[in-house]
Amino acid sequence: MKNLRRVYISLGSNVGNKIENLKKAVHLLSLKVGEVSVCSGVYETPSWGFDSDDFLNACIALNTKLQPEEVLKTILEIENSLGRVRSESDSYQARTIDLDILFYEDEVINSQNLKIPHPQLQLRKFVLWPLREIAPSKIHPVFHKTISQLTDKCEDDSDIQLTSHLLGNGSANDFSKFNFIAIEGNIGSGKTSLATKIAADFNGKLILERFADNPFLPKFYEDQNRYAFPLEMSFLADRYQQFTDDTSQFDLFKDFMVSDYDIYKSLIFANVTLQKEEFELYRKLFNLMYREVKKPDLYVYLYQNTARLLQNIKKRGREYEQNIAPDYLEEIHKGYLNFIKTQTDLRVLIIDISEMDFVKSSYDYQSIIDRITNFTD
Fold first, then answer.
1. ω into residue 136 within 30 of 0, thus cis?
2. Cα separation of 18 and 324, whole Å?
3. Where do runs of H (alpha helix) occur along 208-317?
4. Residues 225 and 358 both lie in one domain
5. What own/partner pairs with CB < 8 Å and gap ≥ 24 does 324-331 have?
6. What is the pTM of this model?
7. What mean pLDDT, rounded, does the chain reach?
8. In this structure, are 49 and 106 located in the same domain?
């Protein structure tokens, strides 16, 4: 069995449905060249070296069994299948798809038909920016500089903008197989941001917890013993009403529902904040309500370590949250884990995002999407 080799390929399109052209290319590359391991975001750039419509550009890394010449032959076949017509002219032209091999491991090849590394990659911002996103420390085997260093020294002053498009890993990220996904996590874990992005990108009905105007919340952070019970009771009443209303209203134009909370969080927080007698009373009422609410068919728990949570809380700047104690966050996390351990009928996916930034990094975001859509019990 041949060893897998890492190959980096740039993609570009400026004719027709450009994003669909790129997605089709990634899918075909995954089928014919090898598994796509990393995919950059999609960048909009002006045409380079000629006057034409703007391009969409990206870079991917694949693990392949093919030799370099076989990779070249395959990507030329893919270009042809996607409508690319190569001219014998040396001048640049508009194209439905443009695929170029940037690196094949650390090999240096200088044959008549194939030159690796790509001889002009260090001159092109539209190649370097997406390549830096997925391989900033990759060392150019000829120049002996990292991609980050080459990007910093690149004299190309053309405009480049990161778009909101996602290419995925060549396989379809299908959320329609879910009815209801709950994204959960500790305070500041990013559950609202993730649920919002998933709903927007995959045609989901978004269900957000609405509590910003809860009058007891700022008071609770000032005096927990005094305001814990009215706070938890008001949360429970609001969540129950909102949750049942939102999950009972089916949207014909959406494929699934995704929320940034599950109503069971009420019991988790109450167990941390309430006195024993208060909690027993609270739990009786909660159990009656919980029987009636819709349960998610996938429960995603976003784990972030306490230090990262505190950074996120500080960054988002809610004044009443700035004095949250680390011990309180750790107790909340333990409460979630205890809940997860005891729910034998609940399909749970735990994702450690302590070292991720899925808002800024399309790679981190796509990694989470792949984990969710490929999840099996």
1. no
2. 47
3. 216-222, 224-248, 265-273, 276-290, 306-316
4. yes
5. 324/187, 324/221, 328/272, 329/186, 329/187, 330/306, 331/272
6. 0.58
7. 88
8. yes
Q: Range of 47's domain?
A: 5-162
**Predicted local distance difference test score (pLDDT) of residue 104:** 97
Bridge partners of 206, per DSSP, are 258
Is the pLDDT assigned to residue 372 strictly greater than 50? yes
Same domain, yes or no, for 185 and 310?
A: yes
CATH code, domain with 18: 3.30.70.560
- Across the range 125-147, mean pLDDT stands at 94
pLDDT in tens, 241-296: 988 988 888 788 888 999 999 999 999 999 988 999 999 999 999 999 998 899 99
Cβ(97)–Cβ(12) under 8 Å?
yes
**Is the residue at 10 inside a domain?**
yes
Is pLDDT above 60 for 87? no
Is the torsion defined by CA of 273, 277, 282, 288 positive or negative? positive
- Check residue 216 and give its pLDDT: 83
Q: What is the dihedral of CA 350, 267, 273, 319, to 10 degrees?
A: 60
Catalytic residue IDs: 260
- Distance from chain centroid for Cα 335: 26
Q: Domain check: are 121 and 228 in the same one? A: no
121 belongs to a structural domain: yes
Tokens describing residue 139: 């060392």
